[in-house]
Amino acid sequence: MDVKVFKTFLEVANTRHFGKAAETLYITQAAVSARIKQLEEFVDAPLFERIRNNICLTPAGERLIPYATTMVRAMQQVKTDISLADSQLVQLSIGATPNVWDAYFQNYLTVVTKGLPELTFKTEMLGIRQLHSSILDNTLNLALTFDPFLSNEVISEQIANVNLVMVTTKGNIKADEAMAEHYVYVDWGTQFASEHDAKYGKSYVPKLITSTGRIALDFILSEGGTAYLPTALAEPFIESGELFKVKGKHSLTRSIYAVYQKHNRLVDTIENVVTVIDQSSPERSAVIEMASNND
Q1: Is 3.40.190.10 the CATH classification of the domain at 161-254?
Q2: Which of 121, 168, 232, 257 could make a disulfide contact with 226, Cβ separation 3.0–4.6 Å?
Q3: Any idea where the domains of the chain sit in the sequence?
Q4: pLDDT tens profile 137-195
Q5: Cβ distance 147 to 258 under 8 Å?
Q6: Boundaries of each HTH lysR-type domain copy (predicted)?
Q7: CATH of span 3-70
Q8: Which residues contact 11 (CB under 8 A, 6 or more apart)?
Q9: b/e code 214-227 from CB counts within 10 Å (16+ = b)
């Protein structure tokens, strides 16, 4: 089966639209339909269904997602490894959830690339399920997450802590008042969800739920509101008077884990990268600096 068929399936699953998938892949809509039909014949099951003019994945389509993702990623890795063979360079793939990028790794990317010039890097922002499956099938070398992976096949090494602080656009208010209007719930992982529920219960109704601190920050700066943000991300806006810490003790700490396969062929290289990250103290991200300097 041509890997292009799996790419097409994933694009339709992502866009939920045959026409948009065709535009993204630079092929005709008829070609998209033909590839999906070919794949459905191969697995002997329908992959999409139309419900109220919306294209949705069938149960078979849902189950195919991780396998198609693995297939596409594996073939991309093959092409990359072969292209790097003559140069004797090694490429390391690093993935992280969106919130880990915002809270932590964007500050370290330059440190890692400068500290290990003999490597080339591929970085990806993926959901936790994709990270887990990609680590297990060895199509991703290193994952950075807020929650360790509970598997005997992987190493989950705690490498850092991130302090989260509840901030709001109104000064001198308590948590219950701050959460009553325009509260943005950011998904900072399983442990955060448990601690958040224990501390605040279910009495609040979030105006917005998001997986990235960057989106939460942009929203409350634009519309007003409250959110838990990493101290490093919130600090420049607290300093400028755009954000305020909520009154009382409303800080939570999250651990960052480096996760990788025990038997990955690049395990020594991965451990070198983890050591560089663990021993570095990068300056505040340029992205944050630019954002905080915008009027």
Answers
A1: yes
A2: 168
A3: 3-70, 73-159+256-293, 161-254
A4: 888 899 999 889 888 889 999 988 889 999 999 988 998 899 988 899 998 988 888 98
A5: no
A6: 1-58
A7: 1.10.10.10
A8: 21, 24, 25
A9: bbbbebbeeeebbb
Chain-centroid distance of CA 247 in Å reads 31
Contacts 24+ apart (CB under 8 A), 284-287: 284/107, 284/232, 284/235, 284/236, 285/106, 285/107, 285/232, 287/106
- Of 212, 221, 160, 204, nearest in space to 186 by CA: 212
Say if residue 289's pLDDT is above 70. no
Collapse the DSSP code of 109 into the 3-class scheme (helix H, G, I; strand E, B; otherwise coil) and give the result: helix
Q: Is the pLDDT assigned to residue 70 strictly greater than 60?
A: yes
Q: Where are the alpha helices (DSSP H) in the chain?
A: 3-15, 18-25, 29-43, 59-84, 98-103, 109-115, 128-136, 175-179, 190-200, 213-223, 231-239, 267-278, 286-293
Domain 73-159+256-293: CATH superfamily is Periplasmic binding protein-like II (3.40.190.10)
Stated length of the chain: 295
Phi–psi pair at 47, nearest 5 degrees: -105, -25
- Measured CA to CA, the distance from residue 17 to residue 167 in angstroms comes to 39
